[in-house]
What does this fold into?
Amino acid sequence: MKNIFSKIAIAAAVTGMGLGVTSCDLDLKPVNVYTPDTFWSTKSEFEGNIIALSNMFRANYPKQILFDAGDVRAGSLYIGTLADGSGSDQAEYIQNLYDATHCQFNTFGNWYGFIAGLNNLIYNAEKQEGILDDNTRDGLLAMAYGWRAFSYFQMYRMYGGVPLRTEPDVTLGQYDPTKLYKPRASAEETLNLIKQDIDKSLNLFAASTYSYSSKKAYYWSKEATQMLAGQVYLWSAKVATDDHALGGAADVAKAKGYFTDVMNAGYTLMDDFYDAFSTPLNKESIYSVCYSSLSDKSFYSQPQQNFNWAYKTGAAGGKYWSVMADATWSKVPDGVANLFGRWGTVDKDGNVSIRNSVVWNKTALGVHRYMFKNAFYFQFNLEDSRSDALFPVYELTAAEQAQNLQYIPSGFNPNDHKMMGTFVVKYRYVPVDGYDYWQTVVDMPIYRLPDAIFGLAECANYEGNGGDVAKYINMIRKRAYGENWDETKYGYTAGSFKDNEVAILQEADKEFMLEGRRWWNLRRLTTVKDGAQTDHLVFQPEGCIGWGLPVASSPWMIENDGTVCQTSTPVLQTAWEYRLLWPVDQTLLNSDPEIKQNPNY
It folds into this structure.
């Protein structure tokens, strides 16, 4: 338990005395040197602790939530030599090759440091006398319990049962690491704690009118707890883990109620898909991590910079040509400073509009380490504005190379060219004063309104209400297609239970690219209502990222290496059912005799 012990000790110091860190909302400077004995003596210290916790969250967890745990192993990433000659990062995890020494994460995803800070806040807020008024205390506790439930739910989905730590042991004077050993709780016990914390959070929010900040989406809120509650009960209803049996209809009904609460809370979809990522604190953002502050200069650079052209290596130079998602074409200049040139769209009248003008004219990109499979791009209808999130590149034909062409011919047919991959342009780079290179000045969404919409679609499917399944999917599509929307052409019509589950998966894939949702969707969506674990889409051909593509009649649908796009290969083999959960790292197993490994590793 030395690892957990050290993280608790560090977290106690950070959250107890870390008010000098900068947030997107407040910039508090320390005026005193604090110790655990002298801290928690004023209201400002309690409130300032939220800043420390927010920065701790931002520094440690968004990449795990938005990519590593949710996308890496979800069957959508390409393995092989990438466009600049580099290789994939996390290749073994992309292939779901895990064991105790190749476990991707240590110490249950390293959540216990954050939980220690939350436990510290909860303990001191509950025992304080005369420092906080009841309204403030209840509001702060509501945030802390919600955050803690979120943290344990992330670990629960990854590992099943985990050690349950609900008190600040170190700050209460327990410094002996051997006395901090704690065995893993069962899956059911862990899930029960999560549900209890959710109930406490919602009850406290109901009792309090306290508002920590006008920048609501940057901090935990009642709607964040409601969104979490919907996800927890939907997972509880459909996913059995160790001793937790399926919760079925009762849990689905609870999930539906929580998602409905979010839908009725005043959030609305942004009119344009890209406005949801280019507009901080926008009207569909429920809980976001702030990376848009120019004052604190904390930008979310990974993993998306590793999905883009490698500015630093640029081995391919002017070899590739790029296609606009609207079928207009752009010359790729020689050299490596700007692979894509100007990137824009053409409306129905032929007018060209440029979105964020020059893309990556000056971006300090690292080595190209990730690429989505070409099959994913082929799933998009080009009238869907979300297709702009992927930027396909093609290799010139031998004849075109021999002619030394400087631009794509006007009669260019992508079927005649080899597609060399799709770069990701979902998060746009912009110039920032004081930097030689452009940065991604964007907030990263942990929860936004489409999460609730998809949740309601899934609840409706469980209830056998195909009409509502179609209604919610089309709500998402209508925004995505914008002025191109024609429900007779692009609208979803409900089918069987399995058809609807697959449609929810594929629509969510397009909506949530690089937002860490796909693995969890594969784990929860299923081909058989209340079926076995192996009925979930993670084990079924319908979970393949290329499912449904007409490759037999479209031989140009190939991957970067020239192989035909896979359309029916499950993400996990049924023999790997145990790999649904991550293994516990060997270092932790060696250091704490109370911690046991997940079965079959």
Remarks:
- The longest helix spans residues 134-159.
